[in-house]
Amino acid sequence: MTRQVSTLVLTLALGCSLTLALVGVAAAEEPPADETYSFGIVPQQSASKLARDWAPLLTHLQQALGVELRFRTAPDIPEFERRLAAGEYDFAYMNPYHYTVFSRAPGYRAFARVADTRIRGILVVRADSAIESLHDLDGASIAFPAPAAFAASVLMRSDLKAQGIGFTPKYVSSHDSVYRAVAKGLYPAGGGVVRTLQAVEPDIREQLRILWTTEGYTPHAFAAHPRVPEDRVAALTAAMVALAQSETGRERLAPLRVEGFEPAADADWDDVRALRIDLLEDLLPPAQ
Predict the structure, then answer these.
(1) Which of 93, 195, 212, 270 falls 20 to 30 Å from 128 in CA-CA distance?
(2) Keywords assigned by UniProt (predicted)?
(3) Which domain holds residue 242?
C-alpha cells in the first residue's frame, strides 16, 4: 500500500564516537593541525555500519578540502540530539525535524541535502504476516527508532493516529534495531525509511515487507555550526555537489544509497516547520 561510505584508522572512543584519521598521505597533503572538523552522523544504524559506509566519503571530502574531517556519531538518537543541542559537532547530518530545532539553537545552518528526493516513513511487517492494513495493528505494540526520529517515528505515528489506530510505541534505538525486532517477531510492525531498509542485511530485509508509506518531506540536512568559517562551508558544499560528476565520487556515494547532493537553504525545511512538532523544546535554551 502506498501513502509511502589512502587508508583510514578507525578508533572507537567513549560514547560511540569514531575518529577517522588519514594514514600514509604525503606531508604536503596532510591537513593543518588547526583545520580539523567533527562530522556528526545521526545514528540510524550501528556505529560500525555508519563508519564503514561514511568513511570513504569523508576521506574523499577531506582530501578535496585539505582539512581533517572526523567522523562522530552517538550511541542512540536521543544522545545525538543532546550533542546537537550542545553544539558538539562542527558539521552534522541530521533529520529534518532535528534541523528545524537546532537551526534555532545553537544555530546550525543547512548547506546541502540529498538531491531530488523526499523523505518518507515506512511501516514494515514480516513478509509472512497476516497483517494487511493499518487497522490490523489496532491495539498493538509497534517498534520505532526514537520519539523524534522524523519519518520513521514522528510521521508514522501521526499517520497511525490519523487512521484511528490505537497502539503502544516501543523505542528500540535505531532503524536497524526496528527491522531486526520485526523480523524476529518481537513486534508485529515497525517504523523506518526506505534507505535504511535497503541498507540492512539482506537476510533481514528479505523477511520484511512494507505495509504503509507516509507523505514525503524535505530530507535530512547537512548543516554547519556557526563557528565554522563560511569559506569552509562553501568549499564542502561544492565538493559534495561534485561527487555525482565523477566515477570515484559515485563510488563514495554508493554505500549511502544516494545518487548525489545538492545545495540547500534554511527555508527548504519550512514544510517540516509547518507541522509544528514540539518534541525537543526542552533541549533549547529558555526564550529571552
Answers:
(1) 195
(2) Signal
(3) 7-117+218-283
Does residue 205 sit in the same domain as residue 222? no
Q: What CATH number does residue 238 fall under?
A: 3.40.190.10
Number of domains forming the structure of the chain: 2
Query: Starting from the edge strand earliest in sequence, which strands make up the sheet with 68-72, in order?
Result: 68-72, 36-41, 91-94, 221-224, 109-114, 261-263
DSSP, collapsed to helix, strand or coil, labels residue 24 as coil
Rounded Cα distance between 84 and 97, Å, is: 12
Residue whose C-alpha is closest to residue 152's, from 116, 111, 110, 181: 181
* pTM for the whole structure: 0.86
CA-based nearest residue to 107, from 262, 270, 228, 237: 228
| C-alpha dist (Å) from residue 2 to 70, 121, 174, 197, 214 | 39, 11, 23, 16, 8
Show which of 213, 236, 252 is a domain's final residue.
Answer: 213
Residue in the block written with cell 543532546? 82
Whether the Cβ atoms of residue 70 and residue 91 lie closer than 8 Å to each other: no
Q: Which helix (H) or strand (E) holds 223?
A: strand 221-224
Same domain, 95 and 141: no
3-state SS, 57-118, equals HHHHHHHHHCCEEEEECCCCHHHHHHHHHCCCCCEEEECHHHHHHHCCCCCCEEEEEECCCC
